Amino acid sequence: MDRNQRRGASRLRGVKSGQSGYCKAFERQIESPVGDLLVLDRVYLDKQWRGFGLGPVVAAEAIRRLSPGCCAVATYPAMGEYSKGRDETTDTDRRRAKKKIAALWESIGFERFREGVWLLDTAQQTPIDLHQQHCAHLKALAHAYRTA
């Protein structure tokens, strides 16, 4: 588990208040906070596949397949690669990338939780509907490509 994962996981547990399990804020945000927690670390696409709407489809499909038995999915949007190199990347670059990554997570049903952590409630219908919308968009794109 890397530093971002440990940081995110610590924000969900109730250990600071002496309770076991999830923290009270998590229990208030998740409809049925009983079960495992899936942590989505990153979604990576080769550069030639970017810009076609595959990121949300791949992420949502991974969640659909991996989340049975989980009450929620957690992620912590952060840069996974650096076009300029890690040391040369400016704070402005980081903020821009984090905003773009957060928009992707939001587009598949994640909601801001706290301290940079985002949660997706697996009991909600919204993530399912959003996944279906992304799949329909991808099918339309594929159809347009084939008929062009």
What is this structure, in a nutshell?
This protein is an alpha+beta fold and about 150 residues long. It is built from five helices and four strands, in the order H-H-E-H-E-H-E-E-H. It has helices spanning about 5-10, 25-30, 55-65, 90-105, 125-145, and strands at about 35-40, 70-75, 110-115, 115-120.
Number of strands: 4
Largest sheet: 4 strands, mixed
Measured distance between first and last alpha carbons: 45 Å
Principal-axes geometry comes out as: flat
Instruction: Write down the secondary-structure element order.
Output: HHEHEHEEH
Catalogue the unreliable spans: none
What is the mean pLDDT?
83
Strand order of the largest sheet: 1-2-4-3
Structural class: alpha+beta
Radius of gyration: 17 Å
| Strand residue percentage | 5-15%
Helix coverage percent: 40-55%
Question: Helix tally?
Answer: 5
Topology overview:
Layout: H1 3-10, H2 24-29, E1 36-39, H3 54-66, E2 70-75, H4 91-107, E3 111-114, E4 117-121, H5 126-147
Helix pairs in contact: 3-5
Write up what this structure looks like:
The chain is of the alpha+beta class. Helix content is 45%, strand content 13%. It contains five helices and four strands, in the order H-H-E-H-E-H-E-E-H. A four-stranded mixed β-sheet has the order 1-2-4-3. Helix 3 (54-66) links the parallel strand 1 and strand 2. Helix 3 crosses helix 5. The longest helix has 22 residues, at 126-147. It is flat, with a radius of gyration of 17 Å. It starts with a helix and ends with a helix.
Question: Key features?
Answer:
single chain, 148 residues, alpha+beta, flat
